[in-house]
Every structure is written in C-alpha cells, then in structure tokens.
Amino acid sequence: MPKAIRVHETGGPEVMRLEDVTVPKPGKGEVLVEHKAIGLNFIDVYFRTGLYPAERPFTPGGEASGIVLEAGEGSGFAPGDRVAYCVSSGAYAERRVLPADRLVRMPDSVSFEQAAAIMLKGMTAWYLLRRTFPVKKGDTILYHAAAGGVGLLLGQWAKHLGATVIGTAGGPDKVELALKHGYDHVIDYKSADFVAEVREYTKGKMCDVVYDSVGKDTFPASLDCIRPLGLFVSFGQSSGPIPPFSINILSQKGSLFATRPTIFTYIADRGELETAARELFDVVATGAVEVVVNQTYKLADAAAAHTDLEGRRTTGASVLIP
C-alpha cells in the first residue's frame, strides 16, 4: 500500500506521520502519478502549523515530479509520461491522483529532482518577475532571503532580464552563496542596516520593487528601500505576519504601491500555467538559471526537513525522495 505524510492536528514537525493511504483509480480527466521527487517549501510549514487553514487530516506539499502510472479518459496524458506540478497541498506522498489540467510535461533536459525543486519556487519567481512587476533592463530590485530556494532562482533570472539585483541574507556563507547566483550586492542583515546599505549602493535612488517573503522582521523597513511610485510585494511571512498598518504609510513613503499576491491566482488559467512552465524550463535548459538542490531527505524524514527549514539551516532548494 502506498504511503503519505498525514497531519491530523496542527503543530510542530512531529505532527507529520508517515501512514498507509488508499489511492483511487484516476477518473475522467485525471491522472495517477508516481512521485520521484517532492519539493520542500515554507508554505508547507504554514499549513502544518495552521497559519494557513486546511481541512484535517491532510497531506502537505505543493510541488512534485514523477511518472504517469495511469491516465483517465480525456486526460491527454499516457502511462510513462514525465510530469510535474504545483498545487496547494498533497505532494508528500508516494502516489496520488491529480486533475490533468494541473500537470505539465517535463522536458528530458530537466531531472525529476530539478523539476520538484522549481515548480512552486520557480513559478513563484516567474510570476514575481514576469507578472507582478515585469522586470526589465535597468530596473533595480531588492529581494529578501536571497539564499533561499526562490531567492537563488529569482536572482539569476532577474540578472538574465538585465536588472540590478540586491539581496539580503543571514550570515557570510549565505551572502557568498547569493553572490554566486545573480546578485550584484548582498547585505548581511545580521550585521548591517539593509536600508542604509541599499541607499548607499543605489546612491540614494533606491529600488523599483522590493520582494519580501520574510514579513514581520523586514517591515516597515522594506518600504524605505523603495523609490517614489515603486512597488512593495509581500508574498510570504517566514518571520511572522506583517502587523496591521495604516494605508496612509504608503503615501508618506512616496505614493508607493503594495500587493500581497499568491501563485495560485497567477497560474489558475491553464494557458498561464503552460506559459509559466515553458518560460521556467527554458531558462533552466539554456543555463540562464541554475537549479541548486542542496538538501535531500527521505519522505519518511519530512519532520527533520521541516526542522532544518524553520531553523534556517537550508540553502537553495530541498527535496524529499519517496
């Protein structure tokens, strides 16, 4: 019987249990996938702790890659197809049934580990750079948590688009890693004032956009890094949620714009999902973006993976292997 990680009550990493599960046959428009690799993301922690609500019991995990075992009528797929996907949950499993319209075909040039590491993180980088704020040559951007999974992908992609890319990271090792992945300047937030550093590096011009997945610890200082009429993009909260604030602060800081996007809005349309996957696989295949998988865990060791992720002991991407 196939196994999956199940969460019956929210809490720490220990609430995740590896259990036997029943996997149904795929129906019309569905596909049964055998996972080869599963991505690890901070959003999985949000669901596990209850910060993001989910009906329990549930299986966490939003991205994975694998092989089609069975294809339902009208799915458009066939047994043996190499596929990958990005959804809200359910990936921490050996096998699962999925709607076919959420799957994309993987090119042979991309490995299962690479695909599992980039579907959620890479398409997050895609919508941030290509849709939320379409980055172009000459733009200056700031990205917090530059040595993280999304950060290492986004830094390279933004540099490929011609931007000046500034990042923040915690500690010299993470600063060095980010500098090797597209960033022009990386600030160690543990030892420096990132607002002052951004002001000095940009000669007072500041940034066109700030991408912030950290939350509480970087707000409202992030707003001070943005030039007038610039954009603040809050897309995560690894340090805790941003506290409620008066919208008047945006006018006081320079008539700024602010948004709180989520990936699933951007890829809800099948055409946009295919565009995101195509553009993502293209930059990986051409070498413009190198996929860095620095940690690999067994599916049974998902709790240890979460402990490392929350303790900020990971860099780049991490994957679980069933």
Automatic annotation (TrEMBL):
Under the heading InterPro entries, the entry gives: ADH-like_C (IPR013149), ADH-like_N (IPR013154), ER (IPR020843), GroES-like_sf (IPR011032), NAD(P)-bd_dom_sf (IPR036291), QOR-like (IPR047618), Quin_OxRdtase/zeta-crystal_CS (IPR002364)
Provide the alphabetized UniProt keywords. Answer: NADP, Oxidoreductase
Q: Does the keyword Oxidoreductase apply?
A: yes
Q: What is the main EC category here? A: oxidoreductase
Q: Which CDD domains match?
A: QOR2 (cd05286)
**What SMART domains is this protein classified in?**
PKS_ER
Q: Which GO terms describe its molecular function?
A: quinone reductase (NADPH) activity
Q: Which NCBIfam families match?
A: PRK10754.1
What is the protein name for this chain? Quinone oxidoreductase 1
